[in-house]
Amino acid sequence: MTEQQTGGAEGGAADSPAPDPEEEEAQQGVVSISPRTRGASRLGGIARGALIGLVAGGAGLAVGELVAVVTGEASAPVTAAGNWAISITPTWLEQFAIRNFGSNDKTVLLIGVYTTLALLAAIDGVLARTRLILAGILTAVFGVVGATVAVTRPVAETSWLLPSLLAGLVAAAALWWLTVMSLKESDSAAKQTERRRFVVGTLGTAVGALAVGYGGNAWIKKRYNVADARAKVVLPKPAKVLPKPPASVHPKVPGLGPFFTPTSEFYRVDTALALPHVDPRDWKLKIHGMVDRPFEITFDELLSYRFEEHDLTLTCVSNEVGGPYVGNARWLGTPLAPLLRRAGVQRGADMILSKSVDGLTIGSPVEAVLDGRQAMLAVAMNGEALPVKHGFPCRMLIPGLYGYVSATKWVTDLDITTFAKSDAYWTPRGYSPEAPVKTASRIDVPKSGATVPAGTVVLAGTAWATHRGVAAVEVQIDNGPWREAKLAASDTPDTWRQWSYEWANAPKGSHKVKVRATDGTGAVQTSAVQGVVPNGATGHHSITVKVS
Ligand SMILES: Nc1nc2c(c(=O)[nH]1)N[C@H]1C(S)=C(S)[C@@H](COP(=O)(O)O)O[C@H]1N2
Ligand SMILES: [Mo]
């Protein structure tokens, strides 16, 4: 809204002398207004109210952001509200978001939060023109609501009340001030001065809010930045250097992704709206609960342990058949089993409830960590310290289990407990407490719907049955017989296996191609179609190809 537009609204006064009920009320209520301006268009009043609401709301949020420089990023009003929204998101909506927005789901959520807040602020601003006290109280109530959702986050501190409370107060004050000025401005006697005051006040508040908001945000980013700390981490040398897998783990088919997923392309799935920025100097891991000898270690202590490299394919329970939420990396970590043994897991304990700094909890079977597989606390992937979004400085990994039951990022707490007693984050949201990775296979080349020249068509893709390994991959064309694909070399049973198939004399026309894998135990991937809830999708991936 510009000054010209508000001016235009007022210009309409002469043409429409009907008394505006809004201004009449304002006259009785808050400020006395000269009859001359009664005709100011109602629309102009609404627009101006909405503008004031937005500016006042913005001022509040900006101050909230500034306070959050001290109280922590996740306590900022918008972040807290967003995190709360994530926590109450029903499973169907979460699935919808993952399916449609993928790793941009956070951006979409933030847009949603900002839009909702803007709408509320605008409505409140309009309301303020006739019911200033009520609107002021409402604004303060928004602040209290924000403070409540902030302080009820799993790892909140009492100070998390502050940003939203102050935001509410500042917004209420700004709303009051600007509304009173705006209503007064209609007064004839000092019209020019009043108007200038209103415009300057509104513009000034808006500019100030933007400056403080952006400044606060930049300050938060700087203050909680761990890039330097990450750069300084000296990765421990693995006790035994793992040789590079042979080149034959990758069939050289154009368009097929590499055997190791580049870190920059590795999928990301988590509930963190503001990524946790954990300084390794502050990091501690606590192992406690049903153990004989609970203990706590620092990052330096962790780094002094025995480290191993391990190639492992990580996948998400939310990955649909043929989906992208799977990646393969070389991880550097210290085995988890010796740490559990040092703590002395008590009889009856069957669950590790791991917790991240942002309060997310993940439940994993104690058995899976102690049965000899390479469960680890990882500090690096693909030769570099973990990126912040993949769990810096430390994350858990257990081969064979979906990420939501094994791969805790920013992990700081292992509570040894039982599945009977404890629920992890996703359990009450409809996901199974335990979830081994299901056998899956995917056709990556050609892309579904692609047109390819007749002759020999090369199909290629990947298959995984983490920890059981992949023993065979077969493809089926147009419901014909299943034909054995050529498997690339196997790295470990914990990694995916790429495959290719030369489809000779592919006839012209549209064809359907399907794939299925057999895992290391000899079990063939099921064709039964199941969605991702409660413990992973099943069914065969299929594509259509046009041969021309
Ligand atoms: N702290 C934390 N750890 C987490 C999650 C999370 O939301 N928060 N998501 C889990 C899920 S569902 C998956 S699939 C993997 C994904 O790991 P990535 O983002 O590094 O690929 O992390 C797991 N660890
Ligand atoms: Mo996941």
UniProtKB/TrEMBL annotation:
Signal peptide span per the entry? Answer: none
The cross-references to InterPro entries, in alphabetical order and at most eight, read:
Ig_E-set, OxRdtase_Mopterin-bd_dom, OxRdtase_Mopterin-bd_sf
Q: Does the keyword Transmembrane helix apply?
A: yes
Q: Where is the composition biased (Low complexity)?
A: 1-17
Q: Which domain of life is it from?
A: Bacteria
Instruction: Cite the entry's keywords alphabetically.
Output: Membrane, Transmembrane, Transmembrane helix
Q: Region Disordered: which residues?
A: 1-34
User: Which protein are we looking at?
Assistant: Molybdopterin-dependent oxidoreductase
